[in-house]
């Protein structure tokens, strides 16, 4: 396959590369401190400098197309899970391929340790500085690299391209702010976009944006959201049984992945619902559990009783709000109740993953700010699998409607599941596109 010729590196790129080289020691000190605070060992912290903590799978020759090493990068948990869904689809087609998954956060590393398939290993991504990236590339020698969503690291992309690595941007999604920032630097944006052999956007609108930023139109393909194909979240059966036993016949609803400024709305909605459903329990799972003290204060100011999971406080008959301030248990919460409000949608965040909710068999409530899933929520809402709300009053009304009408709730749950299943099926063509544009060995050549 003939590669698109990239433009000459603009002056801004040279300046960026020089500055990142100078700042790398300070950047490493900062990221290493964050990793250390989460218990990451010094050896693994040095992965951010490009020092590998695992051997490269053999054979070492990148010319051996029968055993390619495919490098996937996702910044944090959500992107890493999307990468895993793609690895799950590629692995059967490429039975000799090996997979390397990089990310930048300790929480993503913890999640990957639990969910990585065979032939896959995790490393923390190198900083976007020449020395770290070159060290990383010399060790791993990937045949292709797939960057998930919005990770556009100029030094990394340029070095990888010069090393002969075929590049893909998958599940591409740039925020409005990021788009405007790139548009203000058109030469650098085009230089970066032209590094990719293929760009898969979440929707046609984002595909057009990538072209406007300088990507070759022939290489841009709207492909849907890869998160639609993710495996269902794990469920802790014992924890689920314990909570169900504690609730008994009490109704419950979930508010998941909430952000600062949203808990007040959720708590107000729950307080209003208690007037009609006095036994109702809210399970509140903030996006960032470290905000638990702040949220506890809000609950107490509202005059509601609560129990806090991280402190082992039991859910009792008097518990009005159960604060699930832990990580890695969201799948269990979604299995607990068929009514889920997804946060990050009342605050200007962009929304969170509705696929996980629908896969668990629940219906979705969202605020209007779901720009990160602009290709998913409109059909989900149109099908009746999701409801959009704007404030505490409309949120309470949405929950009330489904609590009072089990038949409507059953239909909503089925509609949500159908939409997600349809979008997941549409992703099958993504594998063919990647194998073609990245010149990966087809299954026939591996047998």
Describe this structure in words.
One of its GO terms (cellular component) is plasma membrane. It catalyses: lipid IVA (E. coli) + CMP-3-deoxy-beta-D-manno-octulosonate = alpha-Kdo-(2->6)-lipid IVA (E. coli) + CMP + H(+). The chain has 447 residues and is an alpha/beta fold. The chain is built from 19 helices and 14 strands. It has two domains: 11-49 and 66-224 and 427-446, 3-Layer(aba) Sandwich (Rossmann fold), CATH 3.40.50.11720; 237-425, 3-Layer(aba) Sandwich (Rossmann fold). The protein is 45% helix and 15% strand. It has a seven-stranded parallel β-sheet with strand order 3-2-1-4-5-6-7, sandwiched between helices. Strands 10-11-9-8-12-13-14 form a seven-stranded parallel β-sheet, sandwiched between helices. Helix 5 (130-140) crosses helix 6 and helix 10 (237-247) packs across helix 13. The longest helix has 27 residues, at 11-37. The protein starts with 10 loop residues before the first helix and ends with a helix. Residues 1-6 and 443-447 have low confidence and may be disordered.
- Unreliable runs, pLDDT <50, ≥5 residues? 1-6, 443-447
Residue share in β-strands: 5-15%
* Number of H- or I-type helical stretches: 19
Classification by helices and strands: alpha/beta
The CATH topology of the largest domain turns out to be Rossmann fold
Average residue pLDDT: 91
Described by the principal axes of the CA atoms, the overall outline is globular
Helix content range of the residues, please? 40-55%
CATH class of the largest domain equals Alpha Beta
In CATH, the architecture of the largest domain is: 3-Layer(aba) Sandwich
- What is the rounded Rg? 23 Å
Terminal Cα separation, in Å? 23 Å
Q: What can be said about the biggest beta sheet?
A: 7 strands, parallel
Total domain modules:
2
DSSP E strands, number: 14
